[in-house]
Amino acid sequence: MKRRKSALDDLEQDIREHIERETQDNIARGMSPEEARYAAVRKFGNVARVMEEARGVWRFVWFEQLLQDIRYGLRLLRRSPLFALAAILTLAIGIGANTAIFTVVHAVLLRGLPYPDANRLAIIWTGLGDEHRAPASDYELVQLREHSSLFEQIGGIWVRNSVVPGEGRPEQVKLGHVTENFLSLLCSRPAQGRLFTAEDVQADEPATMIISYALWQRRFGGDPGIIGRSLRVEDGSVTVVGVLPQDFRLVFPDDSSVPPNVDLFMPLGFNSAKPDGPNYLRTIGRLRPGANFLQAQSESDLIAAELRRTVPVFDDEKLSLHVAPLQDDDTRNVRRTLLLLFGGVALVLLIACANVANLLLARSGYRMRETTIRAAIGAARSRILRQLLTESIVLALCGGIAAIAVGWFALKGLLALRPESLLRLGSIELNPAVFAYTLAISILTGIVFGLAPAFAASRVDLLEGLKNSTRIAGAGNKWPRKVLIATEVALSFVLLAGMGLLVRTFLALLDVNPGFQPSNVLTFSTSPGNYNFVHELQQKLQTIPGVESASLVSHLPLDDSYPNWYDAYYPEGTPPSEQSSALADDRSILPGYFRTIGATLIEGRDFRAADDAAHQHVAIIDDALAKQTWPGQDPLGRRLNISDSPKGPYEFERDWVVIVGVVKHVQYHSLTTMVRPQIYVPFQLAPRPVSFVVRASVPLSDLAEPIRARVATVDKNAPVARLIALDELVNQARAQNRFVAFLAATLAGTALLLACLGIAGVTAFSIAQRTNEIGIRMALGASPRKILQLILGQSLGPVLAGLLVGLTSSFALMPLLQTLLFGVQPGDPRTFGAISAFLLVVGTLACYLPALRATRIEPSTALRYE
């Protein structure tokens, strides 16, 4: 610092000596001392500019100037607290919203899955006819392992319910049956013990098990002696060989029926893999280094073609294999939603930038005297521009600091409202990457909103500026502010249009008939699956006071916690080439199920106790399947070939069943689309996961303890899990649409507020500039009504222009929302008309209120205003 000060002193001394020598030379030429001094200074030029240019070639001078500009910018903010508060709050809202959404985008789309070499992990789906996301059979997995050269490892998992061992109340947990290499694909090392090896699947080896960290803590108190301990699981004794890490979770697509938290894992062998075995495995693989997913897909196509050529059943099923990056497949349902929300917050930030740019344009008028003097004493235009941009960036960084707090609160709100599709995708939190993004977006924002005011202020007319130093400068060119207002209105229109369509979609979902009446129905699951247990429990549940009916179903509507059960079906007379082309969801039920959930039995009868494996096999179909299979005909008494399991759980075989009833289609997967028709069989023909449904005339909360008591009287070791109202499952099906609609409404409301503040602020500033003119008009006889019309006529121009641009842009952009809409079209005229009228009214009010105040100015006061 001392060395730099000494250099500045030396430079100043050199300039002073140079001017002094020139002055003496001029005196020697006969000039007076005053004339000589003036001529010397004029010949030398602007001393301040020369010193600035000389310092510009020194090292680190740019850093000194930057610090100087930053200090000056902070001083200006302290001197204008109201301006600083308004600008910082506006930026905090815009940048904070971006921070919150980017946090989710980073966690879900950008950050890799928490697995070793996650970028090489693929999920492999089986295609059966038109179904391209089916599970694989163990035979297919074995063939992939044997014939694939691009996959390093291939593993599979199947998840079902089980009962946890240990002391205390029985607890239902998820049990994952996995290939011996599945966990090693996703986990580097366990917290305790070891992972599975090839020996664990040998028939003569003891049964082994790996448990989750949560189960280890919850049921066994974190006992380090758990390794090697034998536990009773269902019908056998199993030895615990490992405990998974605390942060281990399964991140699979939401339609894979693989939940994130599986508590028990047991190895699965394929000693008897057959081509006609059931499809039940979710398959993943890790590519070899250097291989890519396109190559893996090509190889899988060749393997599938060979299987179709050599195995008739695969040819009948039109087998195909589909390879996708695991992370891309996990996020496919939320990717478009998140990107659209990210685009929405970007529009909010642009509106915030336009608002702050308008504030700076107004403020630059008041600073014109300062800028003129700086230019007059030698400051280069680039130097003025740099200083003003630095001030804008300082302002944006202050807004960015405030945005961290806004983003944190917004993120908390997002996490509280997020649907299951986001909940299963891992932790979402502020981290260094998010902070770096906030810093970058703050700097970029400062440049964006600071450019127009900086250029306007740096292009000064010295003569005009010095002559009119007392006047509010910057009043001359109103176009930048008008363009900014039109931009704000256009962006607000786009957000409001999107919000309107998404809200109408959610309202349409509220009116959807799911095919059943969910009110006053409680559901719960339990593990024992034999007929005697469920039949006795059904009878006992119906003795609970207030219970109107009770029954059972293998898969609850709108519940994806179990692997879905579906298969091919065909009526009599179907040629072999078409017997695998039609698929239906299969459900096993007890009598009374349709009455309990409020489904409509259109014709025929419900099941009876005698509809078991010892008698004629029967089925009930939904009206969608009846129309597809026997259009215009009565399906009752006709025969259908399906897969059932009368000999025991999961012992599937093709069988002919007689149709005894037709029920209205029930929405099992989605409220908005019919995925597949449905076939119902008696529970005795196909035991599956057990979910009871209970309709009651009393509050559902009063049923929990009586249900547990009834279950305990039948089997004290049977757990009661997932006590949940059927209404709640319907609400969960609406969760993502509700989440998106709420966020869209929040963003649109924020944009509308910012736009209104911008319109009102610019109108008020324009009135302040024209106060003297208004006073003259009123003194000459103009009525307040005429003044009001004049101001509104000029102020509404940018609003109307913005409406036109926004309407045109919305027609072009709204088709991007097509996949998120239901019951409304992207170009819906009612929505666009309502938004146009609403925004016009709001924009008019934003102009009217400042204009109304202008009509109340006293002419004498206005004439003295300057």
What does this protein look like?
With 866 residues, this protein is an alpha+beta fold. The protein folds into four domains: 2-45; 130-317, no CATH class; 335-510 and 735-864, no CATH class; 528-718, no CATH class. It is 52% helix and 16% strand. The protein has 28 helices and 24 strands. Strands 1, 2, 3, 4, 5, 6, 7, 8, 9, 10, 11 and 12 form a twelve-stranded mixed sheet that branches. α26 (784-813) packs antiparallel against α27. It is elongated and about 130 Å long. The protein starts with a helix and ends with a helix. Mean pLDDT is 83; it is low at 469-476.
Give a quick set of tags describing it.
866 residues, alpha+beta, 12-stranded mixed sheet, 8-stranded mixed sheet, 28 helices, elongated
